[in-house]
Amino acid sequence: CSRVPAMPPYGVVVVGPPGAGKSTLCAGLARYLELLRRPCAVVNLDPGCEGPHRTPCHVDVRNVCRVEDVMRSEQLGPNGALTYCVRLLRDSKWLVGRIEQLRQSSSDDDDDDD
Known about the structure:
Elements: H1 22-35, E1 43-44, E2 59-60, H2 67-74, H3 78-91, H4 94-112
Parallel strand pairs: 1-2
Helix pairs in contact: 2-3
């Protein structure tokens, strides 16, 4: 029996102002993919996001850098703190490592289906 090669990972980036429906869209898309039995991971790339997410995040950059914390510790305004967080994440291997862990666990799950 030949094995079908795994599909390459795809991503969707959702941007918009507060209240535009980004969380609602992500929750709906994640649910749709779940119903199709397709692997899906929600990644929050906004270190300034406030409050809980409507859909659970598999990777959340706020675990590494939060705008509100940087504003206090570095005595920066919101824009400076956001820039600080983005640079920190850009220079860090944390995000790439977390996504690689997700890919690995997804391929391990695929192996279990054999």
